[in-house]
User: What shape does this take?
Amino acid sequence: MQAASRRRWAIVLVFVTPALWAFNSLVARLAPGLIEPYSLALLRWLFAGMAFAYGARAELCRQRTQLVLHWKHNLILGTLGMAFCGAWVYVGGRTTTVLNISLIYALSPVLIAALSALWLKEALNRWQALGIGLALAGVLNVVLKGQWSQLSTIQWVAGDAWIAAATASWTAYCLLLKRWQIDLTASARLAAISLSGVLMLLPFALSEYMSSGTPAVTPEGIGLAVFAAALPGYAAYLAFSVMQRELGAARVGVSMYLSPLYAAALGWLLLGESLHPYHALGLILVLPGIYLVTRPR
Assistant: This one.
């Protein structure tokens, strides 16, 4: 595939991938009582990692020297992107609010853009900076339901620290994934990273199993983990890797601002939740912002 075609495909994924990630909000809302946080994260990435590995099994066998050579990088990436980021959101969600989670996560694309410019030397011109600002304003308008005065009344709780740590972990994962290049396809690399994350999650999941007064995993919880592995796991992370390779960390990061809008649409379609004018205003701000960030220089 030529460079221009790859770029066009990556631009399409900018709008598709956040929809896949939005399904994780449904998983988080359905998980309590069905499956514990670390167990959910472990099964999610075990199933997704097996899918990645099956699709890239010939390459993994052929490139085993590369895997051994970069095992430390894969372990760090798996810890950041699958273990910490994957489980800590579920842990924090037990004691904090959806509003706080969304506000904290809204900082991630801004951090990715700033650190990509400073550390990865990715160009960030004034139009891209304006686009990030517009997209941030749009998603905050959705999170705050158009009532910006809510910012002065927010109460921070212990669970917010877990969400902040997950946000920092995701930011580090995005930057290091771009920084540490390796001669593997996206599927093969994600297989190694996912299964490395599973190794890091295993002792925490075992602790949940030993200490929980209720079953750490129910049959319904396993089904939820399979769903999380398929869409916000396998499909979303594979698309993210392709986008980052073609567009860079900063441009891909801003696509996360579409997730709250997609989550609202999913809540409307599947849970009977209402859509409001602030959703429309958020979309009006986010879409031009993403255009400015992703357009050719």
